[in-house]
Amino acid sequence: MTTARLRYGRASLAFGFLVQGVTFALLVTRIPAIQDRYGISDGLLPAFLAAVPVLAGVASVATEKVVARVRPGVVLRWAQPVVMLALLGVGAGGEVWQAALALGVFGLAVGALDASMNMMGVSLQRAYGRSIMLGFHAAYSLGGIAGASMAWAGAHWDLSLLVSYLPAVAVLLPAVLVGSRWYAEGDVPRGAAAGAEPEGAGPAKGSSVPFRLLLPLCLVMSFAYIGDSTVSNWSAKYLQDVLGSSEQLATVPYNVYMVTTLLGRAVGDLGVRRFGAVGVVRAGSVLAAVGFAVVAVAPGAWWGMLGFTLLGLGLCVIVPQTFAAAGRMFPGASDVAVARLNVFNYVGFLVGSPLVGALGDAWSYRGAMLVPMVLVLATLVYARSFGADPARYGGGHERARAADVG
User: Keyword annotations for this protein (predicted)?
Assistant: First the structure.
């Protein structure tokens, strides 16, 4: 049976995902406003966007080492407040170097936050014995909706970035610190992976996570985040510059995208239990590719909205299931596997943001949308990795309990 400690841990972690969704949405949906505030040119903007995932990837690698000494909950407890304070720094500055510094801190803290957050999610899913990972990412999507709505209000009322960001941080920062008291993790299965250490002693040695076995999931993670970064970093600019929308309407696509990811993730765990992770990932990949195609040929803003709607429904299931699949492959070294896999989250952002920008400038933004479409379709080649049995990789395997655990 699931203990109260695990239930509280699940709720507090879901709240952490929600807060991260708010924070990230407040940043990315106001990229045009950030660009105007600091006078960042179109040519320099991709470099700023790329710096954040580079630093986040570095921090994710470092987190793998840190959690060998302290638990992921400790990392998460301190990384999330730093992310929120860095967001305030982005809104408060006036010089380009101040924007660079704030975004640099944001990137480093986000890397540690994402890695530790998903480590804990994988651990709790193992303890529950059933799919719950999509629920955490659904909370992130809900936060993204709230954050994008706040950004819309800021654009509508012509509020400064600092005024837009300050109320969210003032309310959520204390709440996160209080909620972190209930962070919890599941037990490491007995004999789960060769070389695995006892619970509380940190993850198994790196040799228990062969990169060749993790590589298919790394590629899928990169493809998914190339698609996601295209939406988060370019949807506002695409709607405004290509489809001729107003600045206010340009904040809506990300909100639409987050609404549909919320809907997809809210029922996604049920879909995984019913049809299996492989079937769900395949269906999501095809739907996301259709969404990119609609965006690329959209004659106006509302057709673009339809494309982003399909994108949200398709992409939303891929990333949570990629983390969950890594946890199944390496149940006794899931922290290591998640930290390494999380790096490819930022590889996707690093490639996706400048790639779409470069293709948009050199060719057309419509044509640029076809590249993530093809990459998302490539996920179909690796879909079988989502049904992998950890026993095939030399680790132990505990069967999920037949009893329903709440």
Answer: Membrane, Transmembrane, Transmembrane helix
Q: Give dist(CA 198, CA 212) in Å, integer.
A: 25
Contact call for residues 29 and 236 (beta carbons, < 8 A): yes
**Closest CA relative to residue 93, chosen from 146, 43, 162, 145:** 162
pLDDT for 187: 63
> In the numeric block, which tokens belong to residue 109?
């803290």
Token pair recorded at residue 256: 């639409």
Q: Which amino acid is at 245?
A: S
Asked whether the predicted pLDDT for residue 305 surpasses 90, the reply is no
Average pLDDT over residues 155-177: 93
Write out the two tokens for 74: 């400790």
pTM equals 0.82
Q: What is the DSSP letter of 307?
A: H
Spatial CB neighbours of 208, under 8 Å, sequence gap ≥ 6: 193, 194, 195, 196, 330, 332, 333, 336, 395
Rounded Cα–Cα distance for residues 335 and 72 (Å): 8
| Residue pair 228/291 in contact by the 8 Å Cβ criterion | no
Whole-angstrom Cα distance, residue 166 to residue 162?
A: 6
Concatenating the DSSP letter of every residue in 41-63 gives -TTTHHHHHHHHHHHHHHHHHHH
Tokens of 373: 């479409």
Helical segments of 238-317, H only: 247-250, 252-275, 277-297, 301-315
Helix, strand, coil share (%) of the chain residues, nearest 5: 80, 0, 20
In our burial notation (b when 16+ CB lie closer than 10 A, e otherwise), range 110-142 reads: bbbbbbbbbbbbbbbbbbbbebbbbbbbbbbbb
Q: What is the largest CA-CA distance in the chain?
A: 59
Please, which residues have CB within 8 angstroms of residue 268's CB and are 6 or more apart in sequence?
134, 138, 280, 316, 317, 320
Residue 355, pLDDT > 50, answer yes
Q: How far is CA 176 from CA 19, 215, 226, 265, in A?
A: 8, 34, 29, 23
Q: How many CB atoms lie within 10 A of CB 406?
A: 8
Q: How far apart are CA 238 and CA 257, in angstroms?
A: 14
Three-state DSSP class for 334? helix
Query: pLDDT digit string (tens) for 52-100?
Result: 888 999 999 999 999 989 999 999 999 999 999 999 999 999 899 999 9
